[in-house]
Amino acid sequence: MWQRLLRGIIGQPPGLPVDPAASARRMLAVLRARNREFYRDTAGLTWNIAMPVMMIAAFAFIFSDEPKDLLKVGLLGDSVPTALTPAGSSPPPLLGLRHIDFIPVDDRDAGIIKIERHQLDLLLDPGDPPVYWVNGDSANGYLAERLLLGESALQAGGNETSLPQRQAVSGQALSYADWALPGVLAMNVMFGSLWGVGWVVVRYRKNGVLRRLKATPLTPFEFLTAQVISRLGVVLGSSSLVYAGAALFLDVPMRGSYLTLFVTYAAGALCMISLGLIVSSRLRTEELADGLLNLMSWPMLLLSGVWFSMEGTSTAAQALSQAMPLTHLVSAARAIMIDGAGLIDVLPQLGLLLLLAVTLLTVASRLFRWE
Fold it and tell me: Out of 76, 197, 311, 361, which could bridge 276 as a Cys pair, Cβ 3.0 to 4.6 Å?
């Protein structure tokens, strides 16, 4: 019975005996051939490592100056939507002013952390009495506080007891390069996984390599497994070199565990490789594969928080963002590197990525054709 089950998993014809040792040797042979093909392509290898490092250095250069005076105010409490457009009464302090970016904040502690890092200029709880948090080292925070107190004084008619209660916060600003680094690494993982498998397997099919492999005892399961292992090692190795280069030239934050970060990117790479195998399962031209891979990758780049935060965007955009695997990879890596999150903290994202990887690999193995 176990032989029938194993034969069904690896795609072995019913009449042939199952030999796990021979199967492992065939996978190892394909794995070695794929790795040699990648390492001998020195131009591609150099570009995979150099391009992300150059992007991080460019971000550090472009955004090295102090941030511009754009006020971002976080709002606490369930009454925030009604407070912004009150009916029949004057709005709470500051909420009636224009040209201020108001961002709803559900978690007070998370909002205070953003104040510490200068990601929010002021955090306001428009309750009774109103309370606000501000970083005394932030220039924008100083301006937001002056506006808040001025509006409050006007509404209170000079009664100082009605002014909002001040809660001081301190902390250094988080640069854009530091914030973007986890997303750039995730982007490198995505591109290396999708094109390193999806495009290459389609090229094999077009050039007749898969047709010749079909004549050997190699099964689709063995071939796909070798591709996954090979690409996983290449992607994680190149991403490690990219991170080492960024850490060498930039003072990047790393408050969590390196092992947790490695596991997170490994889970993300498995998910992206599985997605690439779906694309390559039956396509015959690199042009069509390239178009489909671009169609999948660029929406993820725009909506997964790689370049900018999705806070303050439309509800539809945020819902679509949560449906993309790159979003969960970026958020987990960013939580580890910037917030110091542990394995338990990012377990929901890891579980989702691994579940998607297993599901996509199963579908890819069912759809795969040699010709």
Answer: 197
